[in-house]
User: What shape does this take?
Amino acid sequence: QVRLVESGGGSVQAGGSLRLSCAASGFPANTAYMAWFRQAPGKEREGVGCMYFDDDVTYADSVKERFAISRDNARNTLYLQMNSLIPEDTAMYYCAANFGLGCWLNDASVFPHWGQGTQVTVSS
Assistant: This one.
């Protein structure tokens, strides 16, 4: 059974950093397309970045140069390192996975597997 569990969220001041983790179980993380999405109150879910099974990564323009996705295959865990955080980054962050469907940051429906989310709050 595919399971994704996020952790690492919290409250931070603008300019700070956080690292989110997504622990995967039920499948090897390096066999899936794994992505981070976020959703702020009153807004649609937004793709943040996605890692291909061959370690290539794609990012949304809004987070390029600030966020970085990595994966630890031994721990079967995906990470999202977030630097230079701004209040606009405040949202619930979700980990998602699909098998063979690709990294489509503009289409959350491509990802059938989701974690429960972890809250990130950035204060000014």
